[in-house]
Design brief:
The structure is a single chain. This protein has 299 residues and is of the alpha/beta class. It is built from ten helices and twelve strands. A five-stranded mixed β-sheet has the order 4-3-5-12-6, with helices on both faces. It has a three-stranded antiparallel β-sheet with strand order 10-7-11. A two-stranded antiparallel sheet has the order 1-2. The C terminus is likely disordered.
Length: 299
């Protein structure tokens, strides 16, 4: 039994006339009659009662009509969905996001993507950069927003955002009272840092700038995530560099100050597997303009 047999039968059942059904199908009437007889022979039952004046559905024919319509609707929906999938209009994308990247700018980009592709579901996961890289390699994520370096040939990336580092300090701290900081000011300061196993190299430039100025801050407290880190800073456990995007949200007991010049901007990269051929993923990647283009457009 093929879909065309179902279409032929539904046309005859709805028209209750072989001539009109044949015209509707653009098929010769004898050929249509032969196809219906073939269908009945395959099912080993009569679907239609035929006389010289009328065509009527048998009880089995009425039941089969409902089933045939349902199958044809399902087939049409499947055809439409697979075409939409080929264009990246439907599907699910599993996307990792580091906490600093979950900001107003990224929300705006993802909102625009959702408006253009409402049939694509975004499943977002708050994950560290190392964990995202692991899950991208194992296929547990389709894409990730994380900190470089990426360092795996099977993964590709593009820079989608750059932000300055600033200082986070508890209210009342001596560095919070300064309007202009020097690298020498950090000598002996307690630092609250995300555990080294959960970040790769985020603090390296800051520590190198301090060392160049002869300052030696010390790691006094480790946190397992950025939000715990900021909470510990607000509770007075120390100070730390953080991404400027966190200053967009006011937090009680927490003061942000510009760091001395000399640090490179912190990059956020969008990462995905090199050979992933998902059209929905391609549409997501295309939603992010190169960082150079966005910088020029602001000038």
């Amino acid at each position: 039994m093929e879909l065309r047999h179902l279409r032929y039968f539904v046309a005859v059942a709805e028209e209750l006339n072989f001539r009109r059904a044949a015209e509707r199908l653009r098929l010769a009437q004898p050929a249509l009659s032969a196809q219906i007889k073939s269908l009945e022979a395959e099912l080993e039952l009569r679907l239609l009662e035929r006389t010289t004046r009328s065509v009527l559905l048998t009880h089995a024919g009425r039941v089969f009509l409902d089933e045939a319509r349902a199958v044809l609707i399902a087939a049409a929906q499947a055809e439409q969905r697979v075409k939409q999938a080929e264009q990246g209009l439907v599907g699910t994308l599993r996307v990792g996001v580091i906490a600093p990247a979950a900001n107003v700018w990224l929300a705006g980009i993802l909102r625009g993507f959702h408006e253009r592709f409402p049939g694509v579901q975004l499943s977002l996961f708050d994950l560290t950069s190392p964990e995202q890289l692991r899950r991208l390699q194992t296929g547990e994520l389709d894409a990730g927003f994380l900190r470089p370096p990426v360092g795996f040939p099977e993964l590709v990336h593009k820079v989608v955002e750059e932000s300055w580092q600033i200082l986070a300090a508890p209210a009342g701290h001596r560095l919070a009272r300064k309007q202009r900081l020097k690298w020498a000011d950090f000598d002996g300061e307690d630092l609250v840092m995300v555990h080294p196993s959960l970040q790769h190299g985020y603090y390296d430039a800051f520590l190198a700038a301090c060392a160049k100025a002869g300052a030696r801050p010390k790691a006094a407290q480790y946190a397992n995530d950025i939000h715990t880190k900021l909470w510990l800073i607000s509770a007075g456990f120390g100070v730390a560099p953080t991404t400027a995007t966190f200053a967009q949200v006011q937090r009680p007991g927490l003061i942000f100050r510009p760091l001395p010049p000399g640090l490179p901007r912190v990059q956020t990269v969008l990462v995905w597997r090199r050979h992933d051929d998902s059209p929905a993923l391609a549409n997501l990647v295309a939603s992010f303009k190169p960082i150079e283009s966005r910088a020029r457009s602001k000038s």
